[in-house]
Amino acid sequence: MEETLKEIGELLAAELPHEVIGYEFHCGQMTVNARADSIRKVLTFLRDNQNCLFKLLMDVTAVDHPERSQRFDVIYNLLSIRHNLRLRVRTMTDEETPVPSVTGVFSSAGWLEREVWDMFGIMFSGHPDLRRMLSDYGFEGHPLRKDFPLTGYVEVRYDDELKRIVYEPVKLVQDFRSFDFLSPWEGTDYVLPGDEKAEG
Question: N or C: which end of the chain has fewer CB within 10 A?
């Protein structure tokens, strides 16, 4: 299987030398590194070439590397049923530069790109309906970025008196911000609020 993937990597390097930067193997899986502005061309080639036939786009996801200038890796996971192979295609972008949408190549990319935009804030140019999908329309920020606060910015709850959903700034009780990093089996040196009743 690895030999077949290596042949596909060599084919890509020969047929698309300006679009494909290279390929690498990790844990028996191959990742093809492509230029962001050429992602449509690379995925179309992988879908249509008889030696590839990666007809299914299984997933689009991203990885955030905030220390880099191009902080995001956008990753496309492909499947070839004909050849029983999986392949990963990776491209890089920053916070401002959109990646071309591949909805014209794989229709399943519509939902997947919306999810990546919602969670990471990566824009996809040419997407027919790029809007939030997992978070609320008025939500601020993108939760899977590494600089997003763990507690979020606001909490949402239903108010019985107002008979509607209300948004409030997150307020954490200071007692719960103190961690001793002990395992639950070792116990703590202090009593958590609410546990006073257990001792009596």
Answer: C
List the domains of the chain with CATH numbers: 2-144 (3.30.460.80)
Integer-rounded Cα radius of gyration of the chain: 23
- Say which residues have a Cβ less than 8 Å from residue 100's Cβ, sequence separation at least 6: 36, 37, 39, 40, 124, 125, 126
Indicate the pTM of the whole model. 0.78
Residue 114: phi and psi, rounded to 5, are -60, -40
Spell out where the chain has E strands: 20-26, 29-34, 56-64, 72-80, 85-93, 99-100, 124-125, 154-159, 164-169
